[in-house]
Amino acid sequence: MQLRAEQLSAQLARSLQRMYTIHGDEPLLAQEAGDAIRAAARAAGHTERKVFVVSGAHFDWSGLLGAAQAMSLFAERQLIEIRIPGGKPGKDGSEALQRYCQHLADDVVTLVHLPKLDRQQQQGAWFAALDQAGVSVQVVPVERRALPAWIAQRLAAQGQRVAEGEAGQQTLAFFADRVEGNLLAAHQELQKLALLFPAGELDFEQVESAVLNVARYDVFKLGEAVLGGQTARVLRMLDGLRAEGEATVLVHWSLAEDIRALKRVKESLAQGRPLPMAFNESRVWGVKQRLYERVLPLLSADQLGHLVEAASLCDGIVKGLKHPQWPLEPWEALTRLALMLVQAVTPPAAPRGKSWSSRAAPRLALEAP
Questions:
Q1: Which CATH architecture has domain 2-139?
Q2: For residue 139, what pLDDT is reported?
Q3: What is the mean pLDDT of residues 20-44?
Q4: Integer Cα distance of 284 and 265 in angstroms
Q5: N or C: which end of the chain has fewer CB within 10 A?
Q6: pTM for this predicted structure
Q7: Hey, what CATH topology would domain 144-210 get?
């Protein structure tokens, strides 16, 4: 049985399963899911807890198999936790986990902790055995667009709320900008608000005065913001990546790869290939497919050629070269490249009485302003 993290509480209220598997790369949600399972197990009388950490290829799986069958002298029920930080139990571990799942004891609840798993790992026989033996809970990061609602839900749980209407939405958006990509810090800031202010409505000034700027940005999310035409967020992410010491080469690669992929897909479409085939050939997956599908009609072949040239010039600046029409500082050059792409994928405002589609796309100039 596969569940989302927010569905776990309802499942635990119905029944306690013998096997739970938590996997994903969001530490706060994984921690909360584990705490909820541990609390339910304690309430059901599983008072003895054993933890096994699979730290390498030489882990003694026989000890784990024996522990699950051993009765305690002091407690009838056990909670056994298996932590596999690397996400790969190995051949011996795979066989051991499958045997373990075939002989689950009624007086033992097992909790398995795993990091984010790729598709191949999730299709492995050992993970299938865990999934079929009980409940699998996948914890994923809260996306930026969902973060304000997540914050509002957490505020409500501690008896607080923001104002109704646009004023409250602006407060939530400000909060989300400050904690984006750092859910653990977001949780701490929410707890701070609970300590500083009584239950009830919070205004913008209270949130602004209390919430620190603890956002952490993922360089691979930058491309999504760029293709989404989110200028303010793009600038904020670039500033954050720079402050965090991210490598300019990696930031440039992320932007340039999107430009090259857009050009490849555009060329494939011009040759008569269907869009799904063009995406597969250019290795465009997931959310990027939806973003590309939106922006491709806005981009001409000439525009993409200009952007490829701009990415090439920016690459030289990032690697220490100079160009008379580009900024000398690498981060300024990266900002310019990102904004060029934002401009290219943003539909121009339509004049009254006309749709934007009837207007020519804005020209992308490589010259310095």
A1: 3-Layer(aba) Sandwich (3.40)
A2: 93
A3: 94
A4: 9
A5: C
A6: 0.66
A7: Helicase, Ruva Protein; domain 3 (1.10.8)
